[in-house]
Write a structure and sequence with these properties.
By secondary structure, the chain is an alpha+beta fold. It contains two helices and eight strands, in the order H-E-E-E-E-E-E-H-E-E. The chain has a single domain, classed as Immunoglobulin-like (Sandwich). It has a four-stranded mixed β-sheet with strand order 4-1-7-8. The protein has a four-stranded antiparallel β-sheet with strand order 3-2-5-6. The longest helix has 17 residues. It starts with a helix and ends in an 11-residue tail after the last strand. Its main location: secreted.
Length: about 130
């Protein structure tokens, strides 16, 4: 391969890595923190998973939190979702979606408050409806 082609391929590779928002050489973790913010102060049962990892079931009292960390996929394909249950009713939501959260607004910490009407982000105070 000629030297110009090698340089072009190298430059394109570096550009793609940087455009994805993360470099494979950076040791960046994302932390997800989920608070029980149910207005009726009930216990919240939470079960979070990804395609590859089952994080288990936890029970949170009012204002308690559960947190976990992970290394996101380079091209934004990371997905973690949680099923939450209280008063015998279950709901689920995507607690981290690479195409939506991208490192949680540059802080690498995603904070959620679980409320009756849906999960709310703490930084932007945006609430989402339950997926089901």
């Amino acid at each position: 391969m000629n030297p110009w082609a090698i340089r072009w391929v190298w430059l394109l590779s570096v550009t793609l890595v940087l455009a994805a928002g993360r470099s494979v050489f950076w040791d960046t973790n994302v932390e997800v923190i989920i608070y029980n913010d149910l207005e009726d102060k009930k216990d919240l049962t939470i079960h979070c998973k990804s395609k590859d990892d089952d994080l288990g079931v936890r029970v949170l009292s009012y204002k308690e939190y559960y947190d976990f960390q992970f290394k996101p996929h380079l091209f934004g394909r990371t997905l973690f979702f949680c099923r939450v249950t209280w008063n015998g009713k279950s709901h689920w939501f995507d607690v981290y979606r690479g195409d939506r959260d991208n490192g949680c607004y540059e802080s690498d910490i995603c904070v959620w408050n679980v409320r009756q009407n849906g999960p709310c982000t703490e930084i932007l105070d945006v609430c989402y409806p339950w997926d089901t």
